[in-house]
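Researcher: Next entry in the queue.
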Amino acid sequence: MAAFLGPFIGAGVRPIGGWLADKIDSGSRVTLIALFVMLFASIAVLFGIQTHSFALFFGAFLLLFLTTGFVNGASFRMIPYIFNNPFHSSLVTGFTAAIAAYGAFLIPKIFGWAYSSFQSVTPAFYILIAFTVSTIVVTWWFYDRKHSGIHC
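Model: Structure for this entry, 152 residues:
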């Protein structure tokens, strides 16, 4: 019944992530902050699973979807600044949107693999946490660091 709430929230806040990135003139900063919240939410989901707290699990999962919307909107704001050429920027925007669609395919596959291999979804969250940490490092190093060379 409530399975639609996560994607609904993520899609609903996507424009807000882009607007906020424009407002503070930094898609990388909004992306980085949202990624840290995403990391916290992923850890909270794991804690909710381990403590059998549905309220914590569900609330953290909704927060996870909320942050994906912010990251999506803010990261699309970064593309024209990274690729200073409008033609290249439009190509990369389309490519990014196409690759992003694989998330809806790969994430359930990761959960299915974890459950079939370990009879638990916990390993899938460890993979997602590791991916989030690597994304935080890449975003900070290449785009949000003081002397990164790209202000986006």
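Model: Residues 54-82 form the longest helix (29 residues).
Researcher: Noted, moving on.
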